[in-house]
């Protein structure tokens, strides 16, 4: 957004927060010829430069430690917009949410109709064939997103990865295979893809002690709660079982509920607290 001209010869740069609230205005440094001070580059300009650099230091320090992130992956046929609206209702002001969109591709389960999908789904039974290449490529894409956020200055242990249904499945697989140490995983109404590819015992990766919140409706007709039970049993053999929480919700189908979202909020706030 281009800022309009200020009053007289003054100009201001406005920094906006996540919600659009003004965080700070930065005055013009006064380097123009004719500025007050000793010559064109007077003492006031040097002081302004010093204060501006100091502000930027604290500005980036603030975002580095006070704006942890949740990367949340939507389910089959959805987009990131739907979950961004749902998560806005539980969002804490110090947490930033990223809700990316899956690519559009044919999905075998839905008669090869094209729709947003992180990978192909061939069947929804425990012994169904899985799109191994597609799952691994999707995980690499999510890892690249995490790596980019780390390059932008967000410590990986201040990032929670989450998702619903297919997105939850991908978030679990990605967290268990990435080299970046994450703060936690939120896995809603989902399963662990490529279960047989993981070791029978504990993993040795960066997230062997990761905190996992797994939630499932006990009336889910699409991804039955049995999938959630099998997943949590597998997870407890791979990572610290004390860090795995499995919650079920009476009467909930393949959807979400206020009770579940409050549990998600509590998990996120406890693992991404603001730093005093």
From TrEMBL:
Gene3D superfamilies xref list: alpha/beta hydrolase (3.40.50.1820)
Function in brief: Acts as an acyl-protein thioesterase. Hydrolyzes fatty acids from S-acylated cysteine residues in proteins such as trimeric G alpha proteins or HRAS. Acts as a palmitoyl thioesterase that catalyzes depalmitoylation of proteins, such as ADRB2, KCNMA1 and SQSTM1. Acts as a negative regulator of autophagy by mediating palmitoylation of SQSTM1, decreasing affinity between SQSTM1 and ATG8 proteins and recruitment of ubiquitinated cargo proteins to autophagosomes. Acts as a lysophospholipase and hydrolyzes lysophosphatidylcholine (lyso-PC).
Domain of life: Eukaryota
Catalytic activity: S-hexadecanoyl-L-cysteinyl-[protein] + H2O = L-cysteinyl-[protein] + hexadecanoate + H(+); 1-hexadecanoyl-sn-glycero-3-phosphocholine + H2O = sn-glycerol 3-phosphocholine + hexadecanoate + H(+); a 1-(9Z-octadecenoyl)-2-acyl-sn-glycero-3-phosphocholine + H2O = a 2-acyl-sn-glycero-3-phosphocholine + (9Z)-octadecenoate + H(+)
Subunit and partners: Homodimer.
Protein's cellular compartments: Cell membrane; Cytoplasm; Endoplasmic reticulum; Nucleus membrane
Keyword field contains Transmembrane: yes
Name the record gives this protein: Acyl-protein thioesterase 1
Lineage: Eukaryota, Metazoa, Chordata, Craniata, Vertebrata
Domain Phospholipase/carboxylesterase/thioesterase as annotated: residue spans: 70-271
Transmembrane regions: 46-67
EC number: 3.1.2.22
Main location: membrane
Gene name for this UniProt entry: LYPLA1
GO molecular function, one term: palmitoyl-(protein) hydrolase activity
InterPro entries: AB_hydrolase_fold (IPR029058), LYPA1-2/EST-like (IPR050565), PLipase/COase/thioEstase (IPR003140)
GO cellular component assignments: endoplasmic reticulum; nuclear membrane; plasma membrane
Class of the enzyme per the UniProt entry, highest EC level: hydrolase
Key words of the record: Acetylation, Cell membrane, Cytoplasm, Endoplasmic reticulum, Fatty acid metabolism, Hydrolase, Lipid metabolism, Membrane, Nucleus, Transmembrane, Transmembrane helix
Family label: Belongs to the AB hydrolase superfamily. AB hydrolase 2 family.
One GO-annotated biological process of the protein: fatty acid metabolic process
UniProt KW Magnesium keyword: no
């Amino acid at each position: 957004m281009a800022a309009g001209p200020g009053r007289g010869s003054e100009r201001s740069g406005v920094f906006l927060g996540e919600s659009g609230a003004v965080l700070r205005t930065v005055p013009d440094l006064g380097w123009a010829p004719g500025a007050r001070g000793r010559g064109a580059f007077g003492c006031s300009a040097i002081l302004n430069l010093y204060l501006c650099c100091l502000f930027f230091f604290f500005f980036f320090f603030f975002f580095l430690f006070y704006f942890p992130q949740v990367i949340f992956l939507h389910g089959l046929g959805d987009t990131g917009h739907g979950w961004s609206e749902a998560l806005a209702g539980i969002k804490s002001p110090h947490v930033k949410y990223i809700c990316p969109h899956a690519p559009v591709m044919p999905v075998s389960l839905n008669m090869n109709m094209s729709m947003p999908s992180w990978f192909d789904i061939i069947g929804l039974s425990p012994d169904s064939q899985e799109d191994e290449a597609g799952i691994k490529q999707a995980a690499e894409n999510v890892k690249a997103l995490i790596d980019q956020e780390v390059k932008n200055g967000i410590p990986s242990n201040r990032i929670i990865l989450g998702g619903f249904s297919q997105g939850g499945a991908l978030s679990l697989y990605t967290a268990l295979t990435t080299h970046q140490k994450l703060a936690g995983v939120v896995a809603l109404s989902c399963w662990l893809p490529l279960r047989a590819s993981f070791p029978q015992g504990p993993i040795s990766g960066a997230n062997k002690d990761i905190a996992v919140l797994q939630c499932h409706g006990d009336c889910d007709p699409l991804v039955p709660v049995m999938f959630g039970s099998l997943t949590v049993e597998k997870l407890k053999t791979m990572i610290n079982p004390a860090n795995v929480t499995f919650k079920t919700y009476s009467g909930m189908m393949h959807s979400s509920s206020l009770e579940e979202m409050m549990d998600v909020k509590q998990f996120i706030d406890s693992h991404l607290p603001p730093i005093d």
